[in-house]
Amino acid sequence: MNAEYITSRKNPLMTQIRRLTASRSHRREQGLFLGDGVKLLEEALKWHAPLTTVVVSEGVELPNLPPEVRAVQVPRDVMETISPMKTPQG
């Protein structure tokens, strides 16, 4: 699967993810939620959760995603700005 490659922290998707990370009310308002980590992604895929976008760090292998899921790869420094975790898993 080919992923988009985004390098800018100011990209609209990265900005949206940061807003979702920072605000519970924004997540509820948008009807969007975040999961961070390989284990959560594996579970979401296993249970056919309605995924819209998967973002991974450079060098991290993307799993097989449904065709409607947007796949995005970012440099580690960009991942650090969007992840709610202090040490993102990728």
CA-CA gap between termini = 17 Å
What percentage of amino acids are in beta strands? 5-15%
* Count of individual beta strands: 3
Helix and strand content put the structural class at alpha/beta
Fraction of residues in helix? 25-40%
Rg from C-alpha positions? 12 Å
Mean pLDDT: 90
Describe the 3D structure.
With 90 residues, the chain is of the alpha/beta class. 38% of the residues lie in helices and 13% in strands. It contains four helices and three strands; from the N terminus they run E-H-H-H-E-E-H. The protein has a three-stranded parallel beta sheet. The longest helix is centred in the N-terminal third of the chain and has 11 residues, at 12-22. It is globular and about 30 Å long.
Brief overview:
The protein has 90 residues and is of the alpha/beta class.
Name the features.
90 residues, 4 helices, globular, 3-stranded parallel beta sheet, 13% strand
List the helices and strands and how they pair.
Elements: E1 4-5, H1 12-22, H2 24-30, H3 38-46, E2 53-57, E3 70-74, H4 76-82
Parallel strand pairs: 1-3, 2-3
